[in-house]
Amino acid sequence: SAASPPERDWDVVNPLLDGPCFGVVSYNVLSDTLLFDNVGLYPNCPRWALDFEYRRENLTRELVTSEADVICLQEVDCHHYKEVFLPEMEAYGTACCPRSPRVCRATGEAAEE
Asked: Can you tell me the distance from the alpha carbon of 70 to that of 22, in angstroms, rounded to the nearest whole number?
């Protein structure tokens, strides 16, 4: 089994704010389509750590445990959105609202549900 990534340090902004507040998490998922077209950008990262199945488990765990009110994901492959993130987030009661137009720029693939 591959090693787990180190724990992250989180930045809390205005923790003593009065009134309503909400949490936001933003992640660049690192699209496989873009990743493997540009693998040279990650020379110091072990190949196993770039594998989506490894990243999927860690990303999903961090998204769920963040307890954020708003989750923003960038560079999500369309099939990963439909087959992984949408069902996993909905299982935790999270509403998913993909940005329009719902077409992957890298592949031109439609992201319709």
From this structure: 8
- Summarize the confidence of residues 65-75 as an average pLDDT: 86
Q: Could you report the per-residue pLDDT of 83-105, keeping only the tens digit for each?
A: 888 888 888 887 777 775 555 55
> What are 2's two structure tokens?
């591959």
In sequence order, the β-bridge partners of residue 86 are none
Name the residue among 63, 62, 71 with its Cα closest to residue 95. 71
Under a CB-based contact definition with an 8 Å cutoff, are residues 85 and 73 in contact?
Answer: yes
> Are 83 and 56 within 8 A, CB to CB?
no
User: Are 76 and 31 spatial neighbours (Cβ–Cβ below 8 Å)?
Assistant: yes
